[in-house]
Design brief:
Elements (H helix, E strand, L loop, with lengths): L4 E8 L31 E2 L7 H4 L15 E4 L4 E5 L2 E5 L4 E5 L11 E10 L2 E4 L4 E5 L2 E5 L4 E6 L3 E7 L9 E8 L3 E5 L2 E6 L2 E6 L1 E4 L5 E9 L2 E6 L1 H6 L9 E9 L5 E9 L4 E11 L2 E9 L5 E9 L4 E10 L4 E9 L6 E8 L4 E2 L3 E4 L5 E7 L9 E8 L7 E8 L9 E4 L4 E7 L10 E10 L2 E10 L13 E7 L7 E3 L10 E9 L6 E9 L4 E7 L7 E8 L4 E9 L2 E12 L2 E3 L5 E16 L12 E10 L2 E10 L5 E5 L8 E5 L7 E7 L4 E7 L1 E5 L7 E4 L3 E4 L2 E5 L10 E14 L3 E10 L2
Antiparallel strand pairs: 1-12, 1-16, 2-29, 3-4, 4-5, 5-6, 6-7, 7-8, 7-13, 9-10, 10-11, 11-12, 13-19, 14-15, 15-16, 17-18, 18-19, 20-48, 21-22, 22-23, 23-24, 25-26, 26-27, 27-28, 27-29, 30-31, 31-32, 32-33, 34-35, 35-36, 36-37, 38-39, 39-40, 40-41, 42-43, 43-44, 44-45, 44-46, 46-47, 47-48, ...
Length: 759
């Protein structure tokens, strides 16, 4: 069975309320940090607080107010209507009509109609027949005989997909779409732009990839009255089946296009506000880098203009950012330098709830240089949430240590400066989990390198929410694996932990040398919060080309993974998900490779789970990276879904009583899902098994949709899908049954069959 899916986005410019652009005012250079060493009970301010601090940063006085909280639906007999704050749409049996909002003063609506006209495989063309409209949650499907056309709705717009259950040949696959509306259509960097004098929106690019992770950009060509989407014949011919959806949500968003190089970037997420904040470093000169920031909504659309964490002549570099959800607070940290003073660790707090940027501050400054900072946040709604900042302290030329301190959301130091590793060895490149995990036993992991000549160790320490380090004998750290010190860029990263129900497991990625190719590649190690190694020394990237800049986070079950691969065209930004199954680290789907020309640095990744979201959202990740070319840089961001296609769908094969249903959960591994039978008048339950379609001769009009491996008595059922990657892609069937009055045997009625494809 061949199945191909293509994702496109209809996202309107102005679909989200936009704030006016503001230019940040220049501020005076901060005084040099004082108090070499521990700076006391609070972060030392670099400048006094003032009422104009956030105005100088270009921030609005209060957060934006949204007309509607999300997407609403209205199911009619002939179509399903759906709408959000800045658009509305209708899906019927043959087309989708998208209506962007151009203001209440517009004299009329300006809809655009998209209709799949024909499908061609290997040159054989046939018309696309109308289908049946079904809605499941935020997804509306046109179930045509040859293809299922799906529309996934969000605040920002509609994501369009075409899924084929069969293909008759392996030639070029062409979808011909008719498009009607009073817009001018012009090519754009991320697809095609529909332009009108009142506004515009984008019809985005499409990507397909096969089971081995090979990807191809679907060619989108303008025709006289629409588009043709072309999947190259060579890709279709060589693809290993099945072809699967690239779990990518939306198009790449351009965060900023400074006229200077971008050296580092990172991203964090706040669950209660449903917002991302991106931070990045702009290289003003060889001795001066600045740090900029920008807010983005849940669809990664910008909220307002860029603002600054530092634009002084003090250099802020190696920027990292994290969030404490309970206080809607972000903390941006950087390596700071000014004149002949030793490098120190600076920070700036951003209160996203009140949209206020606090003054910059010194985290710690010593008699020697402090470099390579990182920061972890806390997604938990109760307790005393804190940030934890780690850095490398250059105690001597041959002896560097790994230091940490915790910072409360009011800016105070929550305890004294501590050491993860203060041995006489050379430790460097520390990284901390993006968050300490949701729920009990919240724990950060800190990983770093310990070099000894041409060899070394990757080591880890584990820290409770209150800053207490786990001890291994008398040591606050443990060895995860040895390595030969690679030349060139070296990267190391650690995820947030899995949920407590999944054992509080961390995934570590470090850079090692591949024995066969002599290239750098990335090695994975899974370890729990007590230091028990579950999987060790496994290759998690491709050895053919050098790989570096790994970044990881965890959605509670799976691990989002991004890195940079150096190929023929420069750096390639790669993204995928990893699982720990038994003693192995496995990849349930292929890596997505984006922007193959000019990308130099993967920046960061954050799971929505690390920002404290409720279940159903945290499977999604936000990622950021930088592309530099011709002396200028671009900061790019994108959302990534950490699970494959699937979830709930239904087959209309019921008989007897009009039994309905409701479902909970999305079908992801490790998730608890539920079904509720509606309309039962007698003894209700569910038949569970594999999908079949078997007419029952003794029951007129009845069709059995499951192999009935198990009968579950009771109208409401819940069960947990094991966190096992081998289940991904498998489909299970549940059919509601009622024993009271019905056409089968002694009064049985059968409901429509629900199919659950594990994601």
């Amino acid at each position: 069975m061949t199945r191909s899916t293509f994702a496109l986005l209809l996202a309107g410019a102005g679909l989200l309320a936009q704030e006016p652009a503001k230019t940040p005012a220049t501020v005076d250079a901060p005084p040099a940090p004082v108090g070499r060493g521990h700076v006391g009970d609070r972060l030392q301010p670099l400048a006094p607080a003032s009422a104009s601090a956030h105005a100088e940063a270009g921030l609005p006085a209060r957060p934006p107010q949204w007309p509607w909280p999300g997407v609403v639906f209205d199911d009619h007999a002939d179509a399903t209507w759906l709408a959000a704050a800045r658009w509305k749409a209708a899906i019927d049996c043959d087309s989708a009509t998208f209506v962007p909002f151009f203001g209440s003063q517009a004299s009329c609506n300006h809809p655009v109609d998209f209709r799949l006209r024909s499908i061609a495989v290997g040159g054989a063309v046939h018309d696309a027949a109308p289908g049946r409209v079904r809605r499941d949650g935020h997804t509306v499907r046109i179930e045509r005989p040859d293809v299922v056309e799906s529309y996934v709705a969000s605040d920002a717009g509609i994501e369009q997909r075409f899924a084929f259950a069969t293909l008759p040949a392996r030639g070029e696959l062409v979808l011909d779409l008719a498009v009607h509306g009073d817009f001018t259509i012009a090519p754009a960097a991320d697809g095609h732009r529909f332009e009108h004098e009142l506004g515009a929106f984008t019809y985005g690019k499409a990507i397909a990839f096969d089971a081995d992770g090979k990807t191809v950009e679907v060619v989108t060509e303008r025709t006289g009255d629409g588009f043709q989407l072309r999947v190259p014949a060579a890709f279709v011919a060589s693809a290993r089946l099945p072809l699967v959806v690239d779990p990518l949500l939306g198009n790449v968003v351009t965060v900023a296009t400074p006229a200077v190089q971008v050296a580092s970037s990172d991203i964090a997420y706040d669950g209660s506000l449903d917002q991302y904040v991106v931070s990045w470093e702009q290289v003003f000169s060889a001795a001066d880098s600045d740090v900029w920031m920008r807010r983005h909504d849940q669809q990664m659309q910008p909220l307002g203009a860029e603002f600054v964490a530092d634009i002084t002549t003090t250099s802020w570099s190696a920027v990292r950012i994290a969030n404490v959800d309970a206080e809607d607070m972000f903390l941006c940290v950087a390596q700071c330098a000014s004149g002949a003073l030793p490098t120190w660790i600076g920070a700036r707090r951003f209160d996203a709830g009140s949209v206020f940027l606090h003054p910059p501050a010194v985290v710690w400054a010593g008699t020697a240089a402090c470099v390579a900072p990182d920061v972890g946040g806390d997604p938990n709604p109760t307790g005393a949430p804190r940030f934890t900042v780690v850095w490398e302290y250059e105690y001597s030329a041959v002896d560097h240590d790994i230091k940490f301190v915790q910072i409360a959301t009011d800016g105070s130091l929550a305890g004294a400066i501590g050491s993860v590793d203060s041995s006489v060895n050379h430790e460097h490149s520390p990284r901390i989990s993006k968050s300490n995990g949701v729920g009990n036993d919240a724990t950060w992991a800190v990983v770093y390198r310990r070099d000894n000549g041409n060899t070394g160790q990757t080591r880890a320490g584990f820290m409770a929410a209150n800053g207490q380090l786990t001890l291994f004998g008398t040591n606050a750290n443990m060895a995860l694996g040895n390595y030969a010190v690679p030349s060139g860029p070296v990267g190391i990263a650690v995820s947030s932990p899995t949920d407590a129900a999944n054992g509080r497991v961390f995934l570590v990625a470090d850079t090692v040398i591949d024995a066969a190719t002599s290239n750098r590649h990335l090695r994975g190690t899974a370890v729990d919060r007590l230091g028990v190694v579950i999987a060790s020394g496994q290759q998690i990237s491709y050895p053919a080309d050098p790989d570096f800049d790994p970044e990881l986070d965890c959605d509670g079950t799976r691990f989002g993974f991004v890195f940079t691969e150096v190929g023929l065209f420069g750096g390639e930004h790669c993204a995928g998900v990893l699982d720990v199954v038994g003693g192995s680290i496995v990849r349930p789907e292929g890596f997505y490779v984006g922007n193959v020309a000019g990308v130099e640095r993967t920046g960061g990744i954050v799971a929505r789970h690390s920002g404290g979201t409720t279940f159903g959202h945290e499977r999604q990740y936000g990622m950021v990276w930088a592309s530099n070319a011709n002396g200028a840089g671009t900061v790019l961001a994108q959302r990534y879904l950490g699970m494959g296609p699937g979830g709930w769908s239904a087959r209309a094969n019921g008989c007897g009583l009009p039994l309905g249903w409701s479902t909970t959960g999305s079908g992801a591994i490790g998730e608890t899902v539920g079904v509720q039978l509606l309309g039962s008048t007698g003894i209700g339950g569910w038949a569970f098994g594999s999908p079949v379609d078997v007419p029952l001769p003794q029951c007129p009009g009845c069709t059995l949709g499951t192999t009935v491996d198990i009968v579950l008595v009771g109208t409401a059922q819940t069960f947990t899908i094991p966190a096992n990657t081998q289940l991904v892609g498998l489909t299970f069937a549940l059919q509601g049954v009622d024993l009271s009055t019905g056409p089968c045997l002694v009064g049985l009625s059968f409901g429509d069959t629900l199919d659950l494809t594990v994601r």
